[in-house]
Design goal:
The protein is mainly α. Helix content is about 80%, strand content about 0%. It contains nine helices and no strands. It has helices at about 10-30, 35-40, 45-50, 55-75, 80-95, 95-105, 110-135, 135-160, 165-185. The chain is elongated.
Length: about 190
């Protein structure tokens, strides 16, 4: 029998974060026990506690990691049309993390701040652009909020549909967001 290779601390931590992301995405914060995460990672609870003091800390670290990946792909606060490509890439690379942040954590008041911060950054960036193309200030605010909500919702729906046509999805989401902008620009 071959000897079992011990993982370095950073590798073990990533292994735990990966297992926790999947488990939390599947069942949510409340319904997921540390035993579930330890079993999914193939470790004991004692090893899990060497890396994380509590379930809340682990959950927060999972959300932080998802946000870091999203910001790396989309740009923090500097969203452009290309940011939708980054949003899709991030979701394709980590579908469980994307679902966790925008579906599960959004419904958990003690953890919703990460999702709200990301969505608010998207909305503010969209608004900076939209105030120049939508004459009515109230409709510019509406369109900025709808653009962010639409893009995130479209990516979630794409994941749920089995990720069809990965090369086309960003363009289709952009067209959907452009429809929101056009609706806000309409005078009637």
């Amino acid at each position: 029998m071959a000897p079992v290779r011990r993982l370095k601390r950073a590798e073990r931590r990533e292994q735990i974060l990966d297992a926790a992301t999947s488990a939390f995405s599947r069942s949510g914060y409340t319904a997921t026990g540390l035993e579930d995460i330890a079993a999914a990672a193939g470790i004991s609870r004692a090893i899990l506690y060497r890396h994380f003091d509590s379930k809340a800390e682990l959950y927060q670290q999972v959300l932080d990691r998802v946000c870091q990946r999203l910001y790396a792909e989309t740009g923090e606060g500097e969203y452009t049309q290309a940011s939708i490509d980054g949003l899709v890439r991030a979701a394709a690379q980590d579908p469980d993390g994307f679902r966790l942040l925008f579906d599960r954590a959004a419904r958990e008041p003690e953890f919703a701040a990460e999702m709200l911060r990301f969505r608010d950054n998207m909305t503010k960036a969209a608004h900076r652009y939209l105030v120049e193309v939508v004459k009515d200030p109230a409709w510019a605010v509406w369109a900025a909020q709808m653009a962010a909500t639409t893009a995130i919702g479209a990516v979630l729906a794409w994941l749920d549909a089995g990720q069809p046509d990965p090369g086309l999805v960003a363009a289709r989401i952009r067209r959907t967001v452009e429809g929101v902008i056009e609706a806000a620009r309409t005078e009637n």
